[in-house]
Specification:
With 244 residues, the protein is an alpha+beta fold. 41% of the residues lie in helices and 17% in strands. The protein is built from eight helices and eight strands, in the order H-E-H-H-E-E-H-H-H-E-E-H-H-E-E-E. The strands form two sheets. The protein has a five-stranded mixed β-sheet, covered by helices on one side. The chain has a three-stranded antiparallel β-sheet with strand order 1-3-2. A hairpin with a 4-residue loop joins strand 6 and strand 7.
Length: 244
């Protein structure tokens, strides 16, 4: 069974590039910052050497996602360079609308539905079927092509995905677009896993996600892809603390 691979949306900011979501993380830092940030501060927050952080910051300036400023000095020496994001600040109350809506919906479902995890998973599966390009049943299944299509889809949705190609493969999400809501209501993780499995099912893959390790507060999730086309009702979500 063959599946059409969507054209990847690689703008140098998301995980489909060799940077594996580093720039997505930096964009979020810049976007939500109240004051300009130095290279050293960004490097510490993202866990990169200063020279690497500076390379990413300058690339984001070139791409229009950030702007560079030189601080005024009252003493001799070169002025310190700082960076600010150009995207709307998501901490502003008007920009919190969709995030707040997601939290309200998640809390309502969790309180009103005894099977909230299964309900969220089914909703995500329907979402995944809608997003995916159906496979051709007359063609032989090409799992590698399907996984590539899935990664491209998740990359376009800003999950900053990385596929670790081993047997079985592992899917690493370096960024969750709904992390602030998800960390308050982990039931939303089932929605995301359902979406991934819905995509895989629609494209005819034999892989399914059955377990996810959500690293809090590292903003990173690891999903195990296992063989088996049997219908999954929900995933095993394991929240890992910094010392976990």
């Amino acid at each position: 069974m063959a599946v059409r691979v969507d054209h990847p949306v690689f703008d140098g900011t998301t995980g489909g590039s060799e940077h594996h979501g580093r720039r997505t993380h930096i964009i979020r830092l810049l976007r939500d910052a109240k004051e300009p940030m130095t290279v050293e501060y960004v490097a510490k927050r993202v866990g990169l050497p200063p020279n690497t952080a500076r390379f990413h910051l300058e690339s984001l300036v070139d791409a229009g996602f950030a702007k560079r400023e030189a601080q005024e000095r009252t003493t001799p020496g070169r002025p310190k360079v700082t960076y600010m994001g150009t995207l709307p600040n998501q901490t502003h109350e008007r920009a919190q609308g969709f995030r707040l809506l997601a939290e309200i919906m998640a809390a309502t479902v969790a309180q009103a539905n005894g099977g909230a995890e299964e309900w969220m998973y089914r909703a995500g599966t329907d979402w995944g079927h809608y997003l995916a390009t159906p496979g051709d049943p007359t063609q032989e299944i090409d799992e590698s092509t399907i996984i590539t299509a899935l990664v491209n889809k998740l990359d376009a949705l800003w999950y900053s995905p990385e596929i670790v190609r081993k047997d079985p493969p592992k899917l690493v999400l370096h960024n969750c677009p709904f992390w602030d809501s998800t960390r308050r209501h982990y039931v939303l993780c089932q929605l995301h896993v359902g979406m991934i499995n819905g995509c895989l099912e629609e494209m005819g893959s034999g892989y399914r996600v059955s377990k996810v390790r959500a690293q809090d507060p590292a903003h990173r999730c690891e999903a195990d892809l296992g063989r088996g086309t049997s219908r999954v009702t929900k995933a095993n979500i394991e929240v890992v603390s910094p010392r976990g």
